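Following up on my earlier thread - several people asked me to post the actual chain instead of describing it. Fair enough. Here it is, all 124 residues.
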Amino acid sequence: MDMIVNTVRLMDYDQAKEYSEGDNNTLKEKLAIGFLNPEDYKNLNITPSSNLKIISNFGSVIIKVLQDKNVPLGTINMPVSIWANQITGIENNELVYKNIKVKVEVTKDSILNLKDLLNLIKEN
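Reply from S.P.:
Thanks for posting it. Predicted structure:
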């Protein structure tokens, strides 16, 4: 399914706060997530045990999804984080972090923790 991703700053899902006050588990729980409209959640047949793989022209990432009725249909809002950075990039000398065109698919694959994500980035 084609969707749009916007990275956003959220009070309860803040990268700096989690780095300073959290641990490896809370980093993943609070930052490797996306918010979807409940109708999109339903249309994708997402279950509490499934995750979402997001693929952009810049890369891909697997996240947990939560429902939020305030998110427009066809849109995923992701907290600014290293997980969101996997699908952002540079186009025409400008950073692309809003209105990113993506393909999404429901998956049972695991979400990478911070250490594994950093190792993957180093390998590439």
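The CA atoms of residues 34 and 78 lie 5 Å apart. That should answer part of your original question.
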